[in-house]
Amino acid sequence: MKTRISLFIFAFILVSIAYIFEAEKQTFLNQILFLIFPVFAVLTGILAVKIYGLKSIAGKSLLAMTLGIACWAIGGIIWCAYALLNIDPFPSIADVFFLLGYLLVLLGLYMEFKKAQIQLSQLKKSTIILGLLITFVLTVIVFYFGIYMAYDSSVGFLENVVAMSYGIADLILIIGSLFALLMTRAYRGGKFSEFWMIVIAVFVLNLAADILFAIFSVPYTENAKPYIYIDLLWIAGYLLFAYGMLDNYFHIKAIRKRIKNQ
Amino acid sequence: MNKLLEKDVYEMLLKYFGRSTAEIYLYSHKDKSDDFIILSLTELLTKYLGEEKAMEELNKLKNDL
After folding, report:
1. What is the ipTM of this complex?
2. What is chain B's Cα-based Rg?
3. Which single residue of A48, A56, A101, A110 has CA 20 to 30 Å from A91?
């Protein structure tokens, strides 16, 4: 497990170095690097889905989440292809995939939430109040930067709708984080709670990246430094998702080995 | 393992660990006593689902004994 964590951290450090020490403008190498990680995350997701099988809710929910990440990967590939062809990638078909990804990830989380049969009445009042307070603060930030600030009167209707849709998608991430938080609580003390902590971290990284993108979308799309470093947040999110999926996969392998030895 | 317990153990393992794991468990434990099953599941579920969730699931299974 320690080797796995070290490998993931090492991969992230290498990517960060490539991003920071590359030429002034975002290079072809960086764009390829940006695409490797979502594809890797999808592959690890497929591995996890395969070991659970689609007869189980766990397998179905992981499939929905993996398809969501796959949509983000496809969106990223289309975005990079447009950028390489010097075509403005925003708005484009890439946005359809990016936005669909959020819905699929939320669907997967909802399936897990239903499976865990969480009784909200069992939660402490202080936990509920703290959860609602954090949700409110995040919602205000996302609403301001992701929806209100995303509106630009100088661009067309479609561009505004797509830009503001990302703000709404981030609200989905906040709801997803709440589901994941409840799951962490439901499996408290168990190894499965670690996976949901990882999911929360993935969402927080994505949320931070999306908010920064909403604020600095112009210099980002012009590939200017340091704004392209926003990519590192998304990459860290993909790496964490892949780590979580692999963790799930190895847990099931360990369980099977343990059962056979009983 | 009695038939009612077998069915519910399968459903519970399927829910949390997938079909193959549930099948492997039933195959490996077909000759084991109900008490042994509950003991082994207590260890397994506590490790992966945490004590609270494990107890919740085990209480459902204990109704089958």
Report:
1. 0.93
2. 11
3. A110
